[in-house]
Design brief:
With 150 residues, this protein is an alpha+beta fold. Helix content is 17%, strand content 36%. The radius of gyration is 15 Å and the shape is globular.
């Protein structure tokens, strides 16, 4: 569930079996306000996706990948702390501060093990919990950076 949008990143909470599990950070959710995707700095669209574990040539290991994301390829879950550590991927952490997740490896490793052990399909449901004034503020910041609201 995406909770805190910013012009440079999006923070959220990852739920496992309807229970809060950890925090997440992704690139900016530009699509939420109707702006175009910018490669490497735009979060995936809200929606429902399947995931699987596949080999990542970039990381040189098996990692979860989100399947069939419109206009995106290779969206993975991996360790990192800020949106600068991702190009559209989803990063997780046990703790969070504004614009970053903390203790990423401590959140990722057990989550990855859960994904590896399950016999069921791995489903990802990306949802937004933003209100209209927040979206209006974001759109203003992206389209008129000189009028930034803090």
């Amino acid at each position: 569930m995406r909770h805190i949008p910013h012009r440079a990143w999006t923070m959220g909470v990852v739920f496992v079996d309807w229970e809060p599990y950890c925090f997440s950070i992704e690139d900016a959710d530009r699509l939420a306000v109707g702006l175009d995707k910018v490669p490497g700095v735009t979060a995936i669209p809200a929606g429902d996706y399947q995931m699987e574990i596949t080999y990542s040539p970039r990381f040189g290991r098996l990692l979860p990948v989100v399947q069939n994301v419109p206009d995106f390829n290779g969206v993975r879950w991996h360790v990192g702390n800020t949106a600068a550590d991702t190009e559209g991927c989803i990063l997780v952490g046990r703790k969070a501060a504004m614009g970053r997740v903390i203790e990423s490896r401590l959140a990722f490793v057990p989550l990855y093990r859960m994904m590896r052990r399950t016999k069921d399909p791995i489903l990802l449901s990306v949802r937004r919990a933003y209100d209209a004034p927040t979206l209006d503020r974001l759109k203003l910041e992206w389209t008129h950076p000189e009028r930034q609201v803090t």
